[in-house]
Design a protein that fits this description.
Structural class of chain A: mainly alpha
Number of domains of chain A: 1
Number of strands of chain C: 5
Order of helices and strands of chain C: HEHHEHHEHHEHEHHHH
Largest sheet of chain A: 2 strands, antiparallel
Number of helices of chain A: 13
Helix content of chain A: over 70%
Oligomer: heterotrimer
Radius of gyration of chain A: 24 Å
CATH architecture of the largest domain in chain C: 3-Layer(aba) Sandwich
Shape of chain C: elongated
Radius of gyration of chain C: 26 Å
Largest interface: A-C, 63 and 56 residues
Strand order of the largest sheet of chain C: 2-1-3-4-5
Distance between the termini of chain C: 99 Å
CATH topology of the largest domain in chain C: Rossmann fold
Chains: A mainly alpha (about 325), B alpha/beta (about 300), C alpha/beta (about 270)
Helix content of chain C: 40-55%
Chain lengths: ~325, ~300, ~270
């Protein structure tokens, strides 16, 4: 198995697809970082215009004020129990900013790295994975190399398994490089720090509503790790589905087309058909796992982290089973 | 001494999209045999080969290689096989050597030395480290053969192997195959439509048409068959004479030409008889039958389905 | 060979990465689904809602003031942390020797609907019943998002929002009166906190809002509409906090003075 995986990885390296994908990452991250920088500069200018130049840099006074307000809030007998935790969390964040002299307006490499993946997880990242996965099997079919690959004293399921494991390895590489490239490139724009800043998480879904009662702060590096691992999970799921399509459809272009259109359709579906129960079970609607972490989602009935993860896992397992069953029985006629 | 058959096809059938394209093939091959599979386009040669190596599953029947069933003992059966199917499609973005290394990695028995030897055997020493995308058709064919013989298989299956080789290459190839079969004891299964090639290379030939084997012949036997052709002015009389005196069945080919297989019978006495009986004899010659004659005869031209 | 060494490095990175990501994944799941993740700080404050022993009770020697509404009601923006809760009693003291007791139920970001729901939850019933004065500041958050819309959408949105706000306000008044028919309800008008010159359009909308509010609450005889627009228009630098939105300490003091001036007679009279 080890040598089979080595074979597949070497093929991937030689095909230069991996390099191509990484190059896209570099270009896009640079563009985004630059764009963010421009937005930041513009926002500061706008705020200065509205409130007065001093206000934007005088965030300390503002933060102090907000701390006082929040403390009053906590002391009030009318304080809503549920908002207690989120108020406390915000206070910790303000206190951290004051202690470390961090203007909350400012961007940091850590913030950018996290935000980048939060935005990329449901469309951009799947696109990169599809580019790698879709070609794995259909490339061999269309170029005819599959004949030589299968006429060996190696059972078909082993060959498929080696390709699948290679795909997992590549998925780790993509996620890893996304992290490293985002951190480094944005570091040039925003400075390389920010990894210890507190980030709020711990949002739950209770009876279809957002529940902030157990909100807590975690350091940015830990939050980033969580975000990227969710991205990795999404990558595995999308990769499995792509591989299955690649086996069924035998044409790289068609595979990419099919999956991309389902992904794009997913965005429409969650917007237009949020009433239909069945849309909850489609994989593309459940890709925004990082939204559960940050609490920035529209609670649709019945959907929470565990639900989405289970749905995605189900799709992945089904894809793998179908892939193996089809591939081992298939007549190769090319 | 009974040798274990290297390849056994037992009532092999295949139905594809509702049509039965292979209608029951039986075949047994032993070590050191060079076997030719001959047939018009669409007869089912490649389909049969695909079933032998497991690319297609038979609808009925079985394939056994060196005693191992392809359906139930895939790994053991395939370890004895080396194969090229249609054109040998290699990874174009890898070099020739990298391609060979890929396949060698899947079979523990192949040593680096063996790879070097094989590359020399096919004459690719100088180009083996170039990307396959730069190879000519002939070079790709050689690489394909190299990949097939790397594991020293007991059964070597070649589908259109001389495709793209120049005449010198074809001769080289023929010698290589002969060597592999007779010196290393390989069984070689060659499928081709190049009749002359098959005739020159193979010991046994099966002719397949529309999914069934219609005749299996020993090449030597065919070549020994010699027919005599006469051009004379009274064909019917000559035919009657041959029949009465030697019990030879002659056939009339054209207006004044007859042909007969005379085996050991004396040709001079026949000619003497013709002249004595008043038949004017203008022409007499031997005509060697070829595989082509047999082939065209049996397949009646190019009916495909 | 180059490719071979690349393969080994890829393999290593992949193995290490996989372990890290698996850990992160596990954590992410725990954080969003477990019943009790490690909380950052335990609550030192014991919360009571509707605990009558804490709330000041009505008696003849005190004025009870209930403050309802949004962040301005709460006193957000006061750098001394006083707000109406402290400045009102100070202003009232000039006119009476009675004790001034304040209940402040203001909530940041509260909109008219939220206030209505707060009253409907019945938690404030006792406070309402016991109050002599009820100070209400609401509507700022309702209107704020409209002003940032483009001209085309503004007019329509304004009508819709205003209608629903007035409906909420009507019901709110009804609930207050059901519990306490006698308390004086003081309603704060909206001001414009932005320095930059607003369009005539925005000013008109703000004035319309205040006007309609005043019309509605003055239907009840025991209410009072206190405008704030005029007091703050040219005094933004003096009376607005650093956040550019809420009154600062001086602002709250000025507003409290204006309120106490308006109800002077009622306070001294009782």
């Amino acid at each position: 198995m080890f040598s089979l995986i080595e074979n597949e990885v070497i093929k991937m390296i030689s095909k230069k697809r991996l390099m191509f994908v990484l190059a896209i990452l570099v270009v896009l991250i640079s563009v985004f970082a630059y764009g963010q920088n421009q937005t930041l500069v513009r926002t500061k200018a706008q705020l200065s215009q509205r409130i007065g130049i001093t206000a934007t840099n005088d965030w300390r006074k503002l933060a102090d004020q907000q701390l006082i307000d929040m403390k009053n809030r906590l002391d009030s007998p009318y304080m809503d129990q549920k908002s207690q935790a989120s108020t406390r969390v915000k206070m910790e964040q303000l206190q951290y900013n004051l202690d470390n002299n961090i203007n909350p307006l400012e961007q940091s490499a850590a913030k950018f790295t996290t935000t980048f993946m939060q935005q990329a997880i449901f469309l951009f990242l799947p696109l990169l994975i599809i580019m790698l996965a879709a070609d794995m099997m259909s490339g061999e079919s269309s170029s005819g190399t599959i004949k030589l690959l299968l006429v060996r004293n190696v059972p078909r399921w082993k060959i498929l398994l080696s390709k699948y494991l290679t795909l997992v390895i590549l998925e780790v590489m993509v996620v890893f490089f996304a992290f490293v490239l985002a951190a480094i490139i944005s570091g040039f724009f925003f400075g390389f720090g920010g990894w210890l800043a507190p980030v709020a998480t711990g949002f739950k879904v209770f009876a279809g509503k957002l529940d902030s009662s157990s909100v807590l702060n975690v350091p940015q590096w830990q939050y980033s790790l969580m975000v990227y691992s969710l991205a990795f999970f999404v990558a595995i799921v999308v990769g499995s589905i792509s591989l299955m399509i690649s086996i069924l459809v035998k044409s790289t272009a068609a595979s990419i087309g099919i999956i991309m259109s389902t992904l794009v359709a997913g965005n429409f579906i969650s917007f237009f058909l949020s009433d239909w129960k069945i849309t909850r079970y489609m994989f593309m609607v459940n890709l925004r796992l990082t939204d559960y972490l940050s609490g920035s989602f529209q609670p649709i009935e019945g959907m929470n982290m565990l639900f989405s993860v289970t749905v995605l896992l189900g799709w992945a397992i089904a894809s793998v089973i179908i892939s193996f069953m089809y591939f081992t029985k298939q007549d190769i006629l090319v | 001494m009974q040798l274990t058959p290297v390849l056994e096809l037992n009532n092999l059938k295949k139905t594809l999209k509702g049509k039965e394209i292979i209608k029951g093939i039986d075949l047994t091959l032993y070590p050191s045999q060079i076997f030719g599979f001959l047939g018009p386009n669409g007869a089912g040669k490649t389909t049969t080969i695909r079933m032998i190596v497991g690319l297609i599953k038979p609808s009925k029947g079985s394939v056994t290689i060196c005693g191992y069933s392809v359906a139930h003992d895939f790994v053991k059966a395939l370890s004895n096989v080396g194969c090229i199917i249609e054109s040998p499609d290699m990874y174009k973005y890898l070099t020739g050597m990298e391609n060979l290394l890929q396949f060698a990695a899947m079979n523990k028995s192949i040593t680096p030395q063996r790879i070097k030897d094989v590359v020399e055997m096919v004459g690719l020493q100088h180009r083996v480290n170039d990307k396959v995308s730069t190879y000519s058709l002939g070079m790709r064919q050689r690489l394909g053969i190299a990949q097939a013989i790397m594991s020293k298989p007991k059964l070597l299956i070649l589908d259109e192997p001389t495709n793209g080789l120049d005449p010198a290459g074809i001769t080289e190839f023929r010698n290589l195959i002969r060597k592999l079969a007779y010196e290393e004891g390989m069984t070689v299964f060659v499928s081709s439509h190049l009749l002359l090639e098959i005739q020159q290379m193979c010991d046994i030939v099966s002719i397949i048409k529309q999914g069934s084997v219609i005749k299996t012949v020993n090449v030597q036997d065919i070549l020994h068959d010699a027919r005599i052709e006469w051009q004379l002015d009274d064909p019917e009389k000559a035919i009657a004479l041959l029949h009465d005196h030697w019990n030879i069945e002659a056939v009339q080919l054209k207006k004044n030409t007859i042909s007969a297989d005379i085996s050991q019978h004396p040709l001079d006495r026949m000619n003497e008889l013709f002249i004595r009986e008043g038949i004017a004899l203008t022409y007499c010659s031997t005509k060697q039958t070829t595989l082509e004659d047999l082939f065209l005869d049996l397949t009646e031209g190019d009916q495909i389905v | 060979m180059f490719k071979k060494s690349m393969w080994y490095s890829i393999l290593t990175v992949a193995c290490v990465g996989f372990i890290l990501l698996a850990i992160g994944f596990y954590q992410a799941i725990i954080v969003t689904t477990a019943i009790n993740p490690q909380p950052s700080v335990k609550a030192p404050i014991s919360l009571t809602t509707g605990d009558s022993t804490k709330l000041p009770s009505k008696n003849a020697n005190s004025f009870q003031v209930l403050i309802l509404g949004d962040s301005i009601a709460k006193g957000t923006g006061d750098e001394k942390g006083k707000g109406f809760s402290d400045y009102l009693p100070e202003s009232f003291k000039n006119d009476t020797s009675k004790e001034i007791l304040i209940n402040n139920a203001g909530i940041d970001g509260q909109e008219s609907l939220g206030l209505l729901e707060q009253l409907q939850s019945k938690k404030l019933d006792k406070a309402i019943i016991d109050s002599d004065f009820i100070l209400v500041s609401i509507g700022g958050n309702d209107i704020r998002s409209i002003l940032s819309l483009n001209a085309l959408a503004k007019e329509d949105q304004f009508k819709v929002r205003q209608d629903s706000y007035l409906a909420n306000l009507k019901q709110t008044m009804h609930l207050l009166r059901t519990d306490n028919p006698n308390s004086i309800v003081i309603f704060l008008g909206l001001y414009n906190p932005y320095e930059t010159v607003n369009s005539a359009e925005d000013t008109r909308l703000l004035n319309t809002w205040n006007y309609n509010t005043q019309q509605l609450i003055e239907e009840d005889g025991k209410t009072l509409f206190i405008p704030t627009y005029d007091l703050l228009k040219f005094n933004l630098g003096r009376y607005i906090a650093k956040d550019g939105l809420h009154p600062n300490s001086a602002g709250y003091q000025a507003l409290s003075n204006r309120i106490s001036k308006s109800v002077e007679t009622i306070i001294t009279g009782s």
